[in-house]
Design brief:
Blueprint: E1 2-6, H1 17-29, E2 37-42, E3 56-60, H2 66-81, E4 85-88, E5 101-104, H3 121-137, E6 143-146, H4 149-159, E7 166-168, H5 185-188, E8 197-201, H6 210-223, E9 230-233, H7 237-246, E10 256-260, H8 267-273, E11 274-279, H9 288-295, E12 300-303, H10 308-312, E13 317-319, H11 324-336, H12 338-352, H13 357-373
Parallel strand pairs: 1-2, 1-4, 2-3, 4-5, 5-6, 6-7, 8-9, 8-11, 9-10, 11-12, 12-13
Helix pairs in contact: 1-13, 6-11, 9-12
Length: 374
């Protein structure tokens, strides 16, 4: 079979969740002997992180805006390539595909009510585009892939999808994320002066619960004897300062380190060097950082909501993300109970082994085969 896979953003430098998902899956599809040839359609970018192989070609498409790229340039390329199937991997797709269409819906958060508006114009525009496109294209898809049983049920209820037309395929994590016997202190010191800190992957999206995390950290500082610093990735200082001012948390600023975007290659070291990882999201469809931290042997404090309990499992340290005191209490427990801390380390290492990108790629290949034969 000739299969086109949309991976528009994977060559951009500052990749995020959905970009890494399809990049990892493509690398595993290259290893499969499934008889398919994959045409990966991308936008040009500086980080050429995928190379062609015997079963995979890369097609670069230039276009001034994402909607035009997706709605005009992509269908034309698919028609020109003469493929049997198009798989769009990042929540949206062309309204008119010349071949059968598979869509990966990572989540439908943008279709749900919300209490906070994002401060990022880019995210707001993306939200409105998805709200307009997704309900129109799901009816035209031959199959929908999502990333957890939780999200599958959300999608089925919201968009009235028949059970046979949607599959939950778990994500994996990169094997670079593992315990390190020796931590590269030079990498750590690019971001803060010490190890044994608390680590939080921020985002301007309200679901990441940055406000609640900073409130919890303030409560932690009041009760902790050690007062570990907090490393915040992917948030600008100006954004953090606005939160500190509005929530009257300016006193915690000296304990915060906020370098902005952190390259993915540095994350394994930063997880390993951390005392604990904070992931108290209000809503997640999967949660790859959860697995990454677990695989590095770093305990995680996460949420008892959405798909997180499904992925984290019964032994994880889960709290109500709407209660900053609950997050702070979990931190203090890790800090004060060494046996419990070791249990969480061991549990995370074992839990992470249940997920892999090889399993994800094999599931995709099976779905492709099923759709082209139906």
């Amino acid at each position: 079979m000739k299969i086109a896979i949309e991976a528009q953003r994977i060559f951009r430098h500052d990749k995020h969740g959905m970009d890494f998902v399809i990049l990892e899956v493509l690398r595993e599809l290259q290893k499969l002997d499934d008889g398919n040839h994959y045409y990966v359609i991308v936008a040009p970018g500086e980080d050429v992180c995928l190379t062609p192989s015997n079963n995979l070609s890369i097609i670069e498409l230039k276009c001034p805006t994402y909607p035009l790229w997706e709605q005009i340039a992509l269908p034309r390329a698919v028609r020109r390539l003469g493929v049997d199937l198009l798989h769009c991997t990042s929540n949206t797709a062309p309204l008119h595909s010349p071949v059968p269409l598979i869509l990966t819906l990572h989540d439908i958060i943008y279709l749900e009510p919300r209490t906070h508006r994002s401060l990022s114009l880019y995210q707001e525009m993306g939200r409105y585009y998805r709200r307009w496109v997704v309900p129109r294209i799901v009816r035209r898809c031959r199959h929908i892939i999502t990333v957890s049983q939780f999200e599958q049920e959300c999608i089925r209820r919201a968009l009235h999808i028949a059970p046979q037309h949607i599959s939950a395929v778990y994500n994996g994590y990169n094997l670079r994320f593992r315990e390190q016997n020796i931590i590269d202190i030079n990498i750590v010191q690019q971001y803060l002066p010490q190890t044994d800190y608390l680590f939080f992957l921020g985002n301007t999206d309200p679901k990441k619960n940055t406000v609640g995390t900073l409130k919890a950290y303030s409560l932690y500082l009041k009760e902790s004897r050690i007062k570990r610093p907090l490393l915040i990735a992917d948030l600008k200082e100006s954004y953090i300062d606005r939160i500190l001012l509005s929530e009257r948390l300016e006193s915690i600023k000296p304990y915060l380190y906020h370098p902005g975007y952190i390259p993915h290659l540095h994350l394994p070291t930063l997880y390993n060097a951390a005392f604990a990882f904070l992931y108290p999201s209000l809503r997640e469809s999967f949660g790859i950082p959860l697995l990454e931290s677990m695989a590095c042997g770093t305990p995680v404090i996460s949420s008892n909501t959405s798909a997180i309990p499904e992925i984290a499992g019964d032994g994880a340290l889960l709290v109500d993300p709407y209660q900053p005191q609950a997050i702070a209490d979990a931190l203090l427990r890790l800090e004060n109970e060494s046996e419990f801390y070791q249990q969480q380390m061991a549990y995370g290492l074992k839990r992470a082994q249940k997920f892999s990108w090889a399993q994800t790629a094999q599931a995709y290949s099976t779905i492709y085969q099923k759709i082209t034969k139906s």
